[in-house]
Amino acid sequence: MSHALHHAMGSVQKYGGKVEDYLAIHEWFDAPKEHIHDFRHRMFRHHSQGINTMVEVFGPSLTNSDGQTIPTQWIGEQHLLEDFGFIPSPRDWVSALVGTESWMIRQARSGKHNEPRPSEFKPAPIN
Q1: Is residue 24's pLDDT more than 70?
Q2: How many domains does one find in the chain?
Q3: E strand or H helix that includes residue 78
């Protein structure tokens, strides 16, 4: 599966209803494609915690256009099973990282990454 539409068609085959009943959930899983245009977009939502977050966003169930109530967790599981054949955990993704960059382990001086150093701070002029 490579497109949310295909996943939604799979949901229709599995649970009935119409593509529109499921499309928003499958688009949610694939939304990081807007920023990362290859398989790596999946590391952000395609895991067990991603399913849990999706349930928080969409609610625990939906009623499709056939009147059937479907747990949204099932739809998330279907998406990941179609993509991978199993449901990875966030640990599975992180353990697959090959290396680290210095910015990944650096600690911010003040606890805020974007806060300027005192020497860089220029107060606004008072009118």
Answers
A1: yes
A2: 1
A3: helix 72-84
Longest dimension (CA), the chain: 67
For residue 31, the enclosing domain spans: 4-97
Tell me the C-alpha distance between 95 and 99, whole Å: 10
Residue 112 lies in a domain: no
pLDDT per position as a tens digit, 65-117: 999 999 999 999 999 999 999 999 999 999 988 887 888 777 766 555 555 55
Phi, psi of 59 (to 5 degrees): 90, 170
Residue 43 lies in a domain: yes
- Give the confidence band of 1 by pLDDT, cuts at 50, 70, 90: very low
In a domain? residue 35: yes
Q: How far apart are the first and last CA of the chain?
A: 60
Structure tokens at 22: 């499921």
Strand-pairing partners, residue 69, are: 63
The single-letter code of the amino acid at 110 is S
